[in-house]
Amino acid sequence: MQQATFDSRGSRIRWTEVPGAEPARVYLHGLGAMSAAYHAHIAARPELAGRRSLFVDLPGHGTSDRPQDFGYTLEDHADAVAVALDAAGAAGAELIAHSMGGAVAIVLAHRRPDLVSRLVLTEANLDAFPPPTAGSSGIAAYAEDEFVEAGHARVLEAVGPLWAATMRLTDPRALHRSAVGLRKGSDPVMRTLLEGLPVDRVFLQGEHSGELAGRESLEAAGVRVVTVPGAGHNVMFDNPDAFVAAVAGTG
Question: How far apart are CA 98 and CA 114, in angstroms?
């Protein structure tokens, strides 16, 4: 496990690293998740083995520190990941990023283009204010203190055992602020940033999640959109073969 200080109070962002050839692949998780749990089985596949791989836990999540005075906006998360990549010497990395992690990756690629050579986004949040059915919407509907005191426990009971397994490791205040930041989005919004990025971009959409809004505009901007059969939001679990092929650039 590696770590780097990302704020003035000495808080540390942490990641697990597997050595290998450059450019590194950097895996970023979604809201209330952690990177290794969602992506280690992907990086270990023969098609992807041999590449340097970093499994980064966002602030407040997994093994990373959870400062109570941190903002947990998309920009805050992106800047913390930039600190980790700078410390790791992982410039020009490929970012494989899920859900909220995808939004963070887009913001990072915009703010620090030297760190990112390729984006593989899985059901990344592209727009502000997602529908009420989105997990972030349910969390952000609480006032912050209300969520910390009671809402966190309610959400853990409601989300199901897979997501709850990592969400219970996420600091409740960090989780709420991250959800609020995700709903607010970036400025310009993530979709606009993604369309303007001058790197290879792949967007994976699970078949069961429905048609991706604004697909035509993304494709016109050079984003390769792949609808993954038999998959929902967690494409890496539902159809790992298709996920691996997208990361490897063969599917």
Answer: 21
